[in-house]
Specification:
The chain is α+β, with helices and mostly antiparallel strands and 87 residues long. It has one domain (21-85). Helices cover 34% and strands 20% of the residues. It has three helices and five strands, in the order H-E-H-E-H-E-E-E. The protein has helices at 3-19, 41-46, 53-59; strands at residues 28-32, 50-52, 64-65, 70-72, 82-85. Strand 3 and strand 4 form a beta hairpin. The chain binds zinc ion. Zinc ion (ZN) binds next to loops.
Length: 87
């Protein structure tokens, strides 16, 4: 596959994902804690868990959508964890 073809293929996937709604069972999200001294055990216990889009709003009622690729679950105030969308 030429580089141009590869770029076109990637763009096609991105375009499809950009128009897809976030909160559907077809989207998968990986929970990423920020491990350091101040990380709470609740967040650490969720690290690398996979969630489906249709579970998110129920499991993380305070979530903040940053972009089509990143959601902040806001497990607690000042939570630094992120949900990264799987491609
Ligand atoms: Zn957290």
């Amino acid at each position: 596959m030429s580089i141009l073809r590869a770029i076109q293929a990637v763009r096609a996937v991105q375009k499809r994902l950009d128009v897809e709604p976030l909160f559907t069972p077809q989207t998968e999200w990986t929970f990423q804690a920020v491990p350091d001294d101040t990380t709470c055990p609740v967040c650490m216990s969720k690290d690398l868990n996979i969630y489906y889009g249709d579970e998110l709003q129920q499991k993380f009622p305070y979530l903040v959508v940053e972009s089509n690729w990143v959601i902040r679950p806001m497990v607690h105030p000042n939570c630094r964890c992120m949900l990264m969308r799987k491609v």
